[in-house]
Amino acid sequence: MWLVEPDNRRIGVLNAHLARKMSFISAFGESFGYIFFIILDLIALTEGVEGERKIARSEETLDEANEKIRKIKGDRAMRLIAIAADVADLVIAIADIEPNPFCNHAVSLGISGLVSAWAGWYRNWPS
């Protein structure tokens, strides 16, 4: 917690060493979450592919089957976008955890930020 003075300078409630540890713990937890979100989206993608195969083999009318397949393909696109955003955010979080030449490079961070922003825009844009 930070207390703010009227001229917007921070007065240190936490010392710098503790703030660095908390930042590390936060970025580590965030990275851990992104990894599991990516795994969950991959599982959902495989279930969608299996569902699409079942619909193709079923004895449904063509219109019903096409509508279900259209919904599955829409979900697949949104999941792929979510995976792209999670991977981009994971790169940014890894840059906070352990600085390295790849994740901390200006191009890597820039592309990751753009991908994350694009995915957020696409997911929230009205249909």
From TrEMBL:
GO terms for molecular function: identical protein binding. GO terms for biological process: peroxisome fission; regulation of peroxisome size. The chain crosses the membrane at residues 24-45. It is found in: Peroxisome membrane. GO terms for cellular component: peroxisomal membrane. The keyword Transmembrane applies. The keyword Transmembrane helix applies. Keywords: Membrane, Peroxisome, Peroxisome biogenesis, Transmembrane, Transmembrane helix. It is a multi-pass membrane protein. Pfam families: PEX11 (PF05648). Belongs to the peroxin-11 family. Involved in peroxisomal proliferation. Promotes peroxisomal duplication, aggregation or elongation without fission. This is Peroxisomal biogenesis factor 11.
